[in-house]
Amino acid sequence: MAPNKLAIASVSLSQYPGHILDHKIRAASQAGIAGIEIVYSDLLTYSKTQNISIQAAAQKIHTLCLETNLQVLSLAPFENYEGATTPLKERLALGQHWLEIARLLHAPYLQIPSIYTTDCSRDEKTIISDLQRLSDLASSAKPVVSIAYEPLSWGTNCSTWEGALSIVQRVERANFGLCLDTFHEGTKLWGDNASPSGMQMDAEVKLRDSLRRFVRDCPRDKIFYVQLSDAERFETPYSLAHPWALPGEAKEFTWSKHARPFPLEVEFGAYLPVVDIARAWIVDVGFEGWISMETFDRRMVNGQVTPEMAAKRAVESWRKVQVEIESKSRL
């Protein structure tokens, strides 16, 4: 079995408002999960239920994680930062707040998804400069926080691991690297929720070539952590008439919000080649760092799926992925 430690995003343990962050943390720990990505909105909800500041909430959550032997992996997601039209001074002030919370949580990473708004700068120098300023802010106090940059499949300026790696290399900061997610690789190059087949044209070739280039070109030390999730095949192909569709929203974003089960949960329609991606990203490059489950399953919204149930699903999913990786490696 792979030596990687398993983490999970707090939102992937439940999206029901009545399931509070401390409950999720205990459930993850009891299931044998080693780490957790704290989603800011979950922490904010917890602070309100406790009637305390978000800073005090972060300190309490850190203490709870120590008591339950759970490591905070990251604070996420600091969205739509690089190249945004709002003044950089305001964005850096917000970034400073997020970094303060990350340090109180003792989170080694602040996760930043690639910007996905349309009203943003396309200028490469601006994008790189913005990310350098944030990285420098993150390293200006102790403990240093590292920036985990995640290419979204619907990102405006960056939507592939290759684009993200190029940005990482140009930002050129020790505390700036990659957060890689199988959902984004799978939906950018292989899956298509608007196609009756569920697949893009030349899907297998595009994905295979991408993974080969990844193994050849991606430096292992710039992979900060890897997120795993699958995607559900749409029974009725996506269109603007689909009940989940929103005007102006990318179809991959819609897909992400509603239909991202844990890897290999075929009973929920999971069908992406997650094992192929995970094998390249983890085994073939010798990555031994954190693996985190980041799923968005609409079945978790109404409260019928408890954090305990979700945590068990996550552990079983990771077990299945490891078994499949080993099985394919022997072929």
UniProtKB/TrEMBL annotation:
Highest taxon of the source?
A: Eukaryota
Chain ranges passing through the membrane: none
The Xylose isomerase-like TIM barrel domain is annotated at 25-320
Checking Pfam families in the record gives: AP_endonuc_2
User: InterPro entries, alphabetically?
Assistant: IolE/XylAMocC-like (IPR050312), Xyl_isomerase-like_sf (IPR036237), Xyl_isomerase-like_TIM-brl (IPR013022)
The protein's matches in PANTHER family, at most eight in alphabetical order, are given as: DIOXYGENASE, PUTATIVE (AFU_ORTHOLOGUE AFUA_6G00240)-RELATED, HYDROXYPYRUVATE ISOMERASE
* Name used for this protein in its record: Xylose isomerase-like TIM barrel domain-containing protein
What is the source species? Penicillium vulpinum
